[in-house]
Amino acid sequence: MNGTLLLVVSAVVFVVAYVTYGAWLAKKWGIDPTRKTPACEMNDGVDYVPTKPAVLLGHHFSSIAGAGPIVGPISAAIFGWVPVVLWIIVGSIFFGGVQDYGSLVASLRHRGQSIGQIIEAVLGRRGKILFALFAWVTLLVVVAAFANIVASTFAAAPAAGTSSLLFIVLAVVFGIGLYRYKLPLGLMTVLGIAAMLGCMAIGHFCPLKLSVTTWLVITIIYIGIASVAPVWVLLQPRDYLNSFLLYAMIFFAFFGVMIYSPDLNLAPVTGFDLGGMNWLFPMLFVTVACGAISGFHSLVGSGTSSKQLANEKDAKLVGYGSMLLEGFLAIIAVISVGFICSSPENLLEVLKTKGPVAIFSEANGRFMEVFGIPFELGREFVALTISAFALTSLDTATRLGRFLFQEFFTTQEEARTGAKPKSPLANPFVATGITLGLSTYLAVGSYLAIWPIFGTANQLLAAMALLAIAVWLKNSKLDCRMVVYPMCFMFVVTFTALAQLIYTYFVMGNFFVGAMAVLLFVLAIALVVQSLDTFKGVTKND
Questions:
Q1: Residues contacting 434, CB < 8 A, separation 6+
Q2: What is the pLDDT of residues 118-149, one digit of tens each?
């Protein structure tokens, strides 16, 4: 199979889906450009901040992309590139895109509240607590997985780590200039991109070489600070600037593949059972993870993006459009691994010795040579881009984890009135510290040990988000079929995978992660039972 043909066909399918299915969803859900958004009604300059669509798209896409659409598809390619590609396309359009768009719209209709608070509105306090606990445990695994990948990448590519540190300083300056001094966005963007190039040059010529452990500590400290800082100071400007890195990488990758025209050396399908836990069903779907659907996206859409959306009509671009763009990036990842690796055995060996980021960086470094960019420089740029977005997902995940932990110890009256919570555990610094402490414990080791539980928990979270959206739509007398069908499939996939993982972790003696898997399973069952009872009750009343 030729990579150019695969890329073009995928791009056309995604564009058609955005124009047609995205518009159909907007019509079914009653998108109204004249309706005031929570960002406009509750502008507080900290979390609720009306934001230009281009800036918010950059923030949202940066937050949800991370390393997921690269690590997942490359790891899943052991089953062959055909099943991975099919799931990415179908999943992004009918599963992930629907969940992302739906959670964003549902949050807009609930004053920018998180998906957990929406569940409280439709299922009650008990349902909210069950979901919040499940989501918080899932975020612990998300932070652990991405922190491990970032630290390993920075240790292997010191230039990328150095440049990323400089980007943080640049983001603060950008935020102050844009929001405090009201400088024009266009001018700040030009200056910001120029400064980013300068940071990359410094990182290239003066790399900071540190161990994986040291980079892990630095990463944890950074995301801890980002978790409690106002979004305009660090989170939003860094995500916006980093989005240009990803856009540039996608541009170079797209046209590099078009010109280079690589062949996929990996077999289209390698088999259903590859030994151990490597069964195409259900492991393909949970391993691809963010490349097709991700529960983490629902937390981002309802946790931060909905509080920054200035007009409801932009929800389609930010919610649905970002997921399709992520699916397109996942297709590039499949082409990259198909170009570099020739067999499942070869892929597994490379994954163990170098990792998926190295595979993607090497392939796209080759593709970028058609533009006259030296291979080493191209590979370094790609590694920097991926790690920058993994950092973006990290600080967003930590912030969301902090929100959820605080909600456990915030009374309904305190939440309604905006009063300061009395419980010390609701303090943002305490909540951040506990969240990061447990995540750091999980992050020590190899990403290969964390990714299966990450993928399964993340996809089960997606199923729950779809369930919450379905109940909300049903309560609102709106069509919910486009949500119910993918929800049922994801529950079957994730419950099967989680049961397999529980058995495997306890047999291996990894009792801590095994206990987390059991906790996730029990919480999921309890929430599903309560949700289905509520859903049936709403149906009977129709």
A1: 405, 425
A2: 777 777 777 777 888 888 888 888 888 888 88
